[in-house]
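Chapter review: from sequence to fold.
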Amino acid sequence: MAQPWQNEGFYLILTVSLVVSLVLALLRFDPIQLMFWANVLQGVLTPALVIFLLLVGNNRRIMKGKGLGKLANGGLGLIALIMIVAALLLFYGLATGQAS
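The token string follows.
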């Protein structure tokens, strides 16, 4: 079992998160707006992470001579494409006032 001093990174992230949350609460930000924009950010960054997963999964040096199969590559490629289109449609809706 790990001792508390062996998990410094975890406690640092936890402390920073709590401090940021406290600052946002004291500045009286609207929590619903914060959740909305956090989800928008997640929707924009996720396709990049899927593409990064494809690149790493197909790098034979990183994967020690093995790589993703054709089905995994096709599925991840399709997922990345769908998510990119969804992000573009989100921004189109926000720009034209169609998203509420």
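Two observations follow directly from the output. The radius of gyration is 19 Å. Residues 31-57 form the longest helix (27 residues).
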